[in-house]
Amino acid sequence: MRLTLAYCLLYLKVAVALFSVPTVIDDESAGQLGFAGNYAGISNIMSNLQSQSAMNQSVLLRTVEGIYQKVSNFQGNITSSCVFQNSIYFGGQFETVNQTMTVNHIVKFDINTSKFEPLQNGLNGPVYTLYCDESDQLIYIGGNFSSPIETNSTMSNVASWNTNNQTWSLLPWKGFNGPVYTITKNKKYNTVLFGGRFDATGDGQFFNSNTSQLVPMNAPTPWYLQDGVPGYWDANFANPVEPTVFRLSNTHTDKGTISFNILALGWNNYFNLSYVDPVTQQTIVCSKHCILSNNTYQDFTVVDAISATGIRININSWFGSGGGLSFVQIYQIIDISVNPHLNTNDSQCNPTASSTQTTVTGNWKDVYVFGYYQTVLVANVPYTELATSNTAIVYEPNIPTQGQYDVYATTPGCVGSSNCFTRTQVEYQLELSPGFPVTSIISDQNTFEDHRILLYSGYISPVSTNFRPSIALRPAPNAKSPAMGENVQIMADTIEFVRNVTAAPLVSILEYNPTNQLPIGSTVYSIDASNGDILYIGGDFTSPNNSAFRNIITYDNQLGQLIPLNNGSAALNGRVSKLLLSNSILYVGGEFNTSDTLPLNHVAQFDTLKKMWAPLGNGVDGPVTHLLISPDNNTLTVSGHFNHRYHSTNISKVSLGNAQWDIPTQTWTERSSLMVGQITTDDQSLFAGSIVGAQTYRADLVVSSNLNSSRFIFNHSTIVTAGITWLNNKTSEVATIIAGHHGGESNVTISGVAIYYNKTGQLVPIDQFRGYVYSLATFEDKLYVGGQFLPNNGRNQSASLAIYDLKNNNSYVPAHGVTDENNNPGMVQVIKIHPDGKKVLIGGKFAKVGLLECNAVCAIDPVSRQWTPIALGLTGTVNDIIISSENQKITVVGDLNVQNEPTAAIATATDSQNSWLLAWDKTQLSGIPVSAVNSIDNEIIVAGKSAVNPNEFFVGTLKDKTYNSLVSNLEQGTSISQLLIVPVTSTLEERYPAGTQNMLLAVGTLNIQGFGNASAALYDGKIWNPYLLTTQLNGQPGSIQKVIHVTDFRGIKNGRHYLSVAAVILISIAISVGILFLMSAAALLFLFKQHKSTKGPDDMPPWAPSNRLVDALGLFGTGSLGAATIAATAAGAGAAEGSTTGRSAATGPSNATSRAIFQHDDGDIGVYSPTTTIVNPIPITAAAAAAGILSFDSMVATAKSNTTSIVNETHPKLFQAKYPFKAQEFGELSLEAGDILVVTDTTDNIWWLGYKDGGMNRPLSGVFPSNYVKA
């Protein structure tokens, strides 16, 4: 579990519509609140659009006053976006938005209205890139699609949307034959660039010949080798072919091919091939050992051209029981040669419907022509039957793309075939485009030499489902009779279709009129054209010699040349996915890890002026897909499939999906907020992508109410488990003491405790432990550390408990160890300060402290450090301790065994009893309690979990053996780790307990009906209102485990007042006449520090804080506040004796001390103990009867009799207020000019303690500025 710590003032400005959430926790009474838990980001809940749940799909988030609100869900991935006027266009692999609107891969979002609008019916395939062209009012869209849905338009892989008329706009070249990954504009030349993996435009004007012509074959599918035996697959051709690409498909079954090679028959040379690895997306060159994927077909491009009469595919290794192939396709050069042949029943080389083919009718035979060195077809037809003969050959070329072609027919000379006197004329009938008339060409074959004639030059349509270009060869009408004999012979040989290319070839990038292209087989993923004259191109490609450039290149528009980045060579060893030029620095992201010899992990920067590479820290640990720069060019957001960023010091930080690079300082930096996941859009207030979590503040530790300015972020390997605030009496500096752990050597957990000084940001180690630390507490400048850790004899460190003197350089104070029955380290889960100031309680799971048998709960005297059991008969695990201020009854909760009752859940003990008493068992509570808090009228509130079902929980009140559930709108999956009653300021909502200005705060994981998960919620007496959200670094929902109090709660007007359970320190309270108020030095001095700058008409003298626990109030020493003495003076010795009868000793307060509550200037309020037990006000007459206290006039009479300079409880002195003073904190006394005051403590030179007439002759006590009064 990861526990992080934050101190914050949390303001809830906007109430969730479904819940009555208080406007704000009363920070003046509650002070600063700290939250420890398993989270890395925290937010106030201000809207029901917020969430801490992990988001499985892409989302659009909007920030309102720092609060991330979910606008929409995309059922798929957002890959790109662009801004056009007041709208953002999103593209990706999604079909719907919010599961209600069908948009099909592209949608428009209106920023002003927050409404989505589809682009008609969308596109029929994913979108990879968008470019918004403000000047032309067009949105260019690239991806892997064939057309907009329900249109007749052909826009293969690229489309444009006209923003003026809200319609699709046709591009003149009708798209590309492969996916488009990037689109950008060169504004200097007003040209739009498209990059991807394509080699032809839709209109055929640009193409690549490598995969344009399929060699006719008809192999059986699938084809398997004999199990366990290597073998080969052969194909033999009637005429030589020059393969450019081999397209192979594995079997897609449980057996198939792993490695292979291809042999050119006739030459017996292996083809050198290149292919893109489907996993790494890297281009690999192979010859004798090529790897075939089993996912889909793969293209293997021939690196060095070889002409062959056949090929052999050797299968070297396989998976399963044997090798095999699903299909084989061989492509050749675009200059298409259609060779006529007879049907020979050769199953491996018969033509198919999708390849070049010939159809032969009539009496034809193969004849070898000497001198021509080839076999041709010859038909022998009687001349008298020539006019009615069906003799013909139909040539049907596979024209892959439309364009201009030259068509040639070749006739071998008659000498080599010995038929010079029997040849005649033939007719070629050309049908090359649909809708055009058939063209006839007459040619005389009676030629002595080989003759190649041009049959046609012009436009030819490509092959489609409705049309195939064809040329028919048959005897010409009115053909001449033979010079000898009665028969004529018709010759049929090759017809060639030669592309008339006037433009440059097209390889994966298109700009109007490019003159230079990338190597064949390249893929372009990113283009930056912001420079204008220099284009920066990134992708997956390699220069022909594999040395000039690799995966990144520049194109000089003025020179018309591809140029390496550093004018010599530039190579990144993996795909470049994104380029971004800012000033003279080119930022590069992708799947690489080196450039030449420089390590560059997936992201780098290139200085275009100095021609030098540099890393961003030490990069990130996964592929980078997006680079986003802030408007001021100072911050670069890097996003992709990674989990960590690496700093230059080799320190790794968790950065799931994104990281921020600070350009001026050249370092990785933390966001002020938490954003987890991949970011594709960052438009200041709008964020989109695969974002799995976002919260307002990114902090593991925040130590002031200004969260943003006092953040502290730990190394991700440190898990914070406890925290407490301490005020250094020597320096008056507030510090936060924290405990956390990390893995050590041999998997031993090492925990550390350190002080973080809030003002300076300095972190000072105190000590470390072999094990875990679970609890911290401070008392009289002593730090108590509890947990489960091993003793360290070399450092006199005891097991599971340690004490340190904070005012003496954090020196170790020897203490007994806490162990189980086998002398192994026990577990201390909770440390509480007893309100009598005489003992510190520890609770957990243990059997002994030192040699003393003391189970589950034990008490230590903070002065003598002697241990004593609280009572007998308790074992098990104590999870929490609460103490009543009325009778000082101790209540423990947990998984207990009380007086041999194993199902106990709650037990109690008092000073007057020697045995623990069973209060509640687990069956009555439906589980094991983990937290408890005192409420009003002897009522306590408990929360816990089921011992059987982890999804079940309980929370409710206990009083007089009656349990009242407070579950209300909490649902299964809730886990409450701590309860606390807190004051709130607004009077508009319900309150709990009723009649107060408070609510019940619960932290943990709270599943609230109609809202979802929250980390903190407030109960108003009817329902739970979501209050705080948290998220972990991995994007999963966070949780709060502990609430930490910095100061005590202040009294609240018009209602009973609460002073909280101090989670980590003893909180101050006051002592009035006859009533003992225990106040810790830390809390008091913090109060003094808060009001140190409070000034009246005169400047206050310098303040020198006291180091004694209660010297500032003079509470201890004699144990008397002067009430008895005053009473004795006014009413006689009997009254004095009555006032001291309840005291067991004169050294401090006792359990029998009488209490009186005096009215504060805020109205009818109560004063409550640090255990949040609420005490009802006692009438003055009852107080006087109980403690011998008389009227304020009697106190004035006593003070007048003091003519000495001594001022204390036994010698009070009379003063008068010079100026009015308004109390600002609990414990302060409001004054009006002229008020008569009885002062009992002047040991602090700024704040004095005294009494005034509170009305009806009742004394009212408090502290006030010393320079506001005069003698």
TrEMBL record:
<keyword id="KW-0728">SH3 domain</keyword>
<dbReference type="InterPro" id="IPR036028">
    <property type="entry name" value="SH3-like_dom_sf"/>
</dbReference>
<dbReference type="InterPro" id="IPR024982">
    <property type="entry name" value="Rax2-like_C"/>
</dbReference>
<feature type="signal peptide">
    <location>
        <begin position="1"/>
        <end position="17"/>
    </location>
</feature>
<dbReference type="Pfam" id="PF12768">
    <property type="entry name" value="Rax2"/>
</dbReference>
<keyword id="KW-1133">Transmembrane helix</keyword>
<keyword id="KW-0812">Transmembrane</keyword>
<protein>
    <recommendedName>
        <fullName>SH3 domain-containing protein</fullName>
    </recommendedName>
</protein>
<dbReference type="Pfam" id="PF20842">
    <property type="entry name" value="Rax2_2"/>
</dbReference>
<keyword id="KW-0732">Signal</keyword>
<dbReference type="InterPro" id="IPR001452">
    <property type="entry name" value="SH3_domain"/>
</dbReference>
<feature type="domain" description="SH3">
    <location>
        <begin position="1210"/>
        <end position="1271"/>
    </location>
</feature>
<dbReference type="GO" id="GO:1902929">
    <property type="term" value="C:plasma membrane of growing cell tip"/>
</dbReference>
<dbReference type="InterPro" id="IPR048265">
    <property type="entry name" value="Rax2-like_third"/>
</dbReference>
<feature type="transmembrane region" description="Helical">
    <location>
        <begin position="1058"/>
        <end position="1088"/>
    </location>
</feature>
<dbReference type="Pfam" id="PF14604">
    <property type="entry name" value="SH3_9"/>
</dbReference>
<dbReference type="InterPro" id="IPR015915">
    <property type="entry name" value="Kelch-typ_b-propeller"/>
</dbReference>
<dbReference type="InterPro" id="IPR048266">
    <property type="entry name" value="Rax2-like_second"/>
</dbReference>
<keyword id="KW-0472">Membrane</keyword>
<dbReference type="Pfam" id="PF20843">
    <property type="entry name" value="Rax2_3"/>
</dbReference>
